[in-house]
TrEMBL record:
This is High-affinity zinc uptake system ATP-binding protein ZnuC. It is an enzyme of class 3 (hydrolase). Signal peptide: none annotated. Pfam families: ABC_tran. It comes from Atribacter laminatus. Belongs to the ABC transporter superfamily. Its EC number is 3.6.3.-. Residues 12-247 form the ABC transporter domain. CDD domains: ABC_Metallic_Cations.
């Protein structure tokens, strides 16, 4: 099978991609393939190139070398492909004091489709209703966005990204500033969307939690060390490569945690709580 045929087997394909700023190499020789309908979590330390990876998929950056294919096409040569992607950025510059309710905020996701100076049509409002139902926001539709909780605010961002029924949803740290209970609720929402065969790619630091929901994990620190099932990808060896030998991987209950300590070897401790670990470190 030739290159053109294999490309269409994947929604995303990185082909020996590197990316550098003038004084900093961010990604080096990355090859990665994401199948249609796959739910992928990208994990790695701060500054590892995870957000850059997303921006390359969106065509917001161009590779220094190599090629990024999205839906079988070079994203930089076919920017219209972005219309098929819903994107939830890491830091949203939203003024939550602005007097707009949930319904109208979600509608802003269709402004590019509606066109400048035009009023929304009946089918635009219908799309809002369907998206609010899909994301569990029906009861909040008239609520001003500044009165929402952190989890609800992130949910309306996801709703706005879904309003045009994209084939792919990309999220950069969707649970930042969201409490653990609402984090799991958001991942449950993403799992439901995934079951509808939408391709989902999310950057996350919630390694233990996200591993319970995704199909695959991509471990990134300038390079992609592993792209595999969570139970195979999250190992001491992989985490050492990503975080260095000062990283410790702890389990308590069913939720694992990454702890980085200076001048500390890697440990794998089963059954310890965070409090146990802190007490040991104090002694």
């Amino acid at each position: 099978m030739d290159r053109n045929q294999t490309s269409f087997l994947y929604d995303i394909e990185f082909m020996s991609v590197s990316f550098s700023y003038p004084d900093l190499e961010v990604l080096e020789d990355v090859s990665l393939q994401v199948k249609k309908g796959e739910f992928l979590a990208v994990i790695g330390p701060n500054g590892a190139g995870k957000t850059t990876l997303l921006k390359l998929i969106l065509g917001l950056l161009k590779p220094t070398s190599g090629k990024v294919l999205v839906f079988g096409k070079n994203i930089n040569e076919h920017p219209s492909i972005r219309k098929q992607i819903g994107y939830v950025p890491q830091m949203s510059k939203i003024d939550y004091s602005f007097p707009i309710n949930v319904e109208d905020f979600v509608l802003t996701g269709r402004y590019a489709t509606i066109g400048p100076g035009r009023l929304p049509h009946k089918y635009d409002r219908l799309a809002v209703n369907e998206t609010l139902e899909k994301t569990g926001l029906q009861s909040l539709r008239r609520k001003q966005i500044g009165k929402l909780s952190g989890g609800q605010r992130q949910r309306i961002m996801i709703a706005r990204a879904l309003i045009n029924n994209p084939d792919m949803l990309i999220l950069d740290e969707p649970t930042t500033a969201v409490d653990p209970k609402n984090s799991e609720s958001l991942y449950e929402l993403l799992l439901t969307l995934h079951q509808q065969r939408i391709t989902i790619l999310t950057v996350s630091h919630d390694i233990g939690v996200i591993a319970q929901y995704v199909d695959t994990i991509a471990c990134v620190n300038r390079k992609v060390f592993v792209h595999d099932r969570p139970e195979k990808g999250i190992t001491d060896e992989t985490l050492t490569e990503m975080y260095g030998r000062e990283a410790a991987f702890f389990h308590h209950g069913i939720v694992p945690h990454i702890v980085v300590r200076k001048s500390s070897p890697v440990h794998y401790c089963a059954g310890e709580t965070t409090e146990d670990v802190e007490n040991q470190h104090k002694t």
